[in-house]
From TrEMBL:
Residues 1-45 form the F-box domain. Coiled coil: none annotated. It holds the Pfam family F-box. This is F-box domain-containing protein. InterPro entries: F-box-assoc_dom_typ1, F-box-assoc_interact_dom, F-box-like_dom_sf, F-box_dom, SCF_F-box_component.
Length: 400
């Protein structure tokens, strides 16, 4: 390695997955410094995003959290994450190799499965609005703000009052945003009156337990129509740069249909479920331009499923002839756009139901991780070493 020019090593390292680079830090001091440098971390991420190399699927099931290489489904790796000892851990988003994890509204972490590095968010209490006594639904979003070059977590909580189930009282809400750069939370107080009204009367947001959909520097949620109360769907967006909410326009013909949202090819997409027999996929080619919405393709209900409750496109194949679909939080299939045929993506030793996130291989958060987490690990090892020494001492006394 000492005889190879550093620029050649840099070019080679940019093409390797993050998990390999973590091991390569021990090769030499120059390699260690290169891989840990912020400039290399940013260049490696940009190279991975541009080429689509080392793309993985994160599977999350009742007793499962693992990564799967899309090009090699037999390559499955279990993920030991930092919140595993807590409650039922939610994965609420994926961005640039990071995932958001939550056991509760105050137990949240950013985690990089490729490097196993963690940043636990400082605990932030829920400030119950006046007249509220308990929290209701909690909605999260994870995104990267390219304007401030900052990773942000959005937490929205709708609360219950003494008679929260009676619609006349509405559902007060609280919105807070975490900044990784500042390592602190901020409460969002200014919300447009029209959106305030929608929040106040909607008790749940759609899209898979309320996780925000990240596209074009914004997080998105669907406010679904409510028969007998509100006849139309609404899509709201939270701009990560301005930290403000807006209503996003979409085709009026879909305002009364069963819709959901996702991301395909970097663009916001909309799935319209027609009586659970087929799904039309629409895409917004030019962001925030209503006229740029166009119907992309139709997916008929596969014969292998009894119901067609949920469908989400994830990505195109490299030849762009097929689309990988997630169906009913239970299976992954390749859908041939020309023949309309399905082919199941078989994953080794994984037959149970699961939810899916796309995951890129990155060094974001660095290789050394959150200093607080490193300190906790050192303290835990020190306690374990002390207990081991005490155990050995007792054993020696017994046998002497």
């Amino acid at each position: 390695m000492a005889n190879i020019p550093m620029d050649i090593i840099t070019d080679l390292f940019l093409r390797l997955p993050a998990s390999t680079l973590v091991r390569f830090r021990v090769l030499s001091k120059p390699c260690f410094s290169l891989i840990d440098s912020p400039d290399f971390i940013a260049s490696h991420l940009n190279h991975t995003l541009q080429t689509g190399d080392h793309l993985m699927i994160l599977l999350r099931g009742p007793r499962l959290l693992c990564t799967v290489d899309i090009d090699a489904p037999d390559k499955v790796s279990d993920v030991e994450h930092p919140l595993k000892a807590g409650g039922l851990t939610e994965v609420f988003g994926s961005c640039n190799g990071l995932i958001g994890l939550s056991n509760s509204p105050t137990d949240i972490a950013l985690f990089n499965p490729s490097t196993r590095q963690t940043h636990r968010l400082p605990a932030e209490i829920v400030d119950f609005p006046e007249g509220s006594t308990t929290r209701g639904y909690v909605f999260y979003g994870l995104g990267y703000d390219s304007v401030s070059e900052d990773y942000k977590v959005v937490r929205m909580i709708q609360c219950k009052g003494g008679k929260a189930d009676e619609l006349v009282f509405g559902f007060p809400y609280e919105i807070k945003v975490f900044s990784l750069k500042k390592n602190s939370w901020k409460r969002i107080k200014r919300v447009l009156p029209a959106i305030q009204l929608l929040f106040y009367f909607y008790y749940h947001l759609l899209y898979r337990r309320g996780y925000g959909v990240l596209a074009c520097n914004s997080l998105h949620w669907v406010l679904p129509r409510r028969p007998g109360l509100i006849a139309f769907n609404t899509i709201i967006r939270f701009d990560l740069a301005s930290e403000e909410f807006e209503i996003l326009d979409f085709p009026e013909s879909l305002a009364h249909e069963n819709i959901d949202i996702g991301v395909l090819d970097g663009c916001l997409c909309l799935m319209c479920n027609h009586e659970f027999s087929y799904v039309d996929v629409w895409i917004m080619k030019e962001y925030k331009v209503e006229g740029s919405w166009s119907k992309l393709f139709r997916v008929p209900k596969p014969k292998s499923v009894e119901s067609f409750d949920f469908m989400r496109p994830l990505l195109y194949s490299k030849d762009r002839d097929k689309v990988l679909l997630e169906i009913n939080n239970a299976k992954l299939v390749w859908f041939d756009l020309a023949s309309k045929r399905f082919r199941k993506l078989r994953i080794k030793d994984c037959d149970s139901s699961y939810s899916v996130e796309l995951l890129v291989s990155s060094l974001v958060l660095g290789c050394r991780g959150d200093p607080n987490e490193v300190k906790r690990r050192k303290e835990r090892r020190a306690r374990e070493d002390k207990l081991m020494q005490q155990s050995n001492k007792r054993w020696c006394m017994l046998i002497s």
